[in-house]
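Review form for a predicted model. The reviewer records the input and the model, then writes brief findings.
Reviewer: anonymous (R2)
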Amino acid sequence: MIKGAQKQMIVLRTGDSHYFDEAYFVLRRELHANCCSKDMLREANRILEENALSDTAERGSGRPKAGRRRLMSLLWFLLGLALGAGSALALCLLLL
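Model under review:
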C-alpha cells in the first residue's frame, strides 16, 4: 500500500445499461487541477456513450438472448435423451 496517495474519482450511475450499474473514473493528478468539473463530466459521458454504441452494435451479433439459450439447452437435452433411449432400445433388441 502506498502511503499518502490520494486519487480523485467520478462515479456515474448508469441505469439504462445492460452491463453496468455504475462507472468509476479515476482522475489523473496532473489534469485535476487544470480542468473544471463540467469538462470532466462531459468527457466521462462521452466515454460512456461511445461504449454504449459499441455495446448495441455487438448485441445484435453476440451471444443469443437468455430465452433463446434456455430453449437451445432444452433442445440439446431432449436430443441427448432421445439418443440415449434409442441406444438402450437398440442394445435391448441386439441382446434378445
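Findings: The chain has a mean pLDDT of 76.
Further findings: The beta strands are 9-13, 22-26.
Recommendation: see findings above.
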